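re: ur question from yesterday

yeah so i grabbed the chain u mentioned. its 250 aa long if i counted rite. heres the sequnce exactly as i have it in my notes:
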Amino acid sequence: MVVKGLNLEIPENKVTAIIGANGSGKSTLLKSITRIIPYDSGNVILDGEEINNIDTKELAKKLSILPQTQEITEGLTVGELVSYGRFPHQSGLGRLKREDYYAIDKALEMTGTDKFKYRSLDALSGGQRQRVWIAMALAQETETIFLDEPTTYLDLAHQLEVLTLLSDLNKNENRTIVMVLHDLNQAARFADFIIAMKDGKIVKAGDPEEVISAPVLKKIFNIDAMIGRDPVTDKPMCLTYNIMITSNKI
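ran it thru and got these structure tokens back, copy pasting raw so excuse formatting
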């Protein structure tokens, strides 16, 4: 997927969700912003500097990214994985220092995974494992965390657990959270800013009130949506929808 002609500013200290159909360019946008894949033209500016000009280790002190799928080394413990988040802060032989252990323990505590510190990752549930990966990102001590579909393969309870954790990190730690989501109502509930994409282009970007609307959803998903209000949060909510049927009459 090629992402084209974007002019976008991601708000600091907010939760941003990227939505769109499969193949719309959501993950490509995320990977381009974080320098995982190169871009042919344009600029990505982080703290006033073009991202390609930032040293890799310095960049890893500014932002962290959790991909959609993660490979796990057999037998790796929770504490060992979270310690990998300290790599950008290490020098020389890469031995952990007192401040590294403090950052690791703090990340484990913040994500409620400290009780799993010495347990193998293989023994954890999907939701527990996802929280451990988030703990690794927290141990990295970056201001911004990017997540590519963090709720994929999780049941509903674990999805809410992960999204609530990310929301709390934003509110309590002022972390900027940017994530790709498929569930429109979860995006409306947890995000302050939503980017809606189709065919590699941004159709609409703004707060949930602007984006989770019948006209925007029609453009990006080709659906006729009925929008109501969440009775608890008062955020916009997609109550039901139907596929738009187009007739090709001769």
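noticed a couple things. The first strand starts at residue 15 and ends at 20. also The chain is about 35% helix and 20% strand.
anyway ttyl
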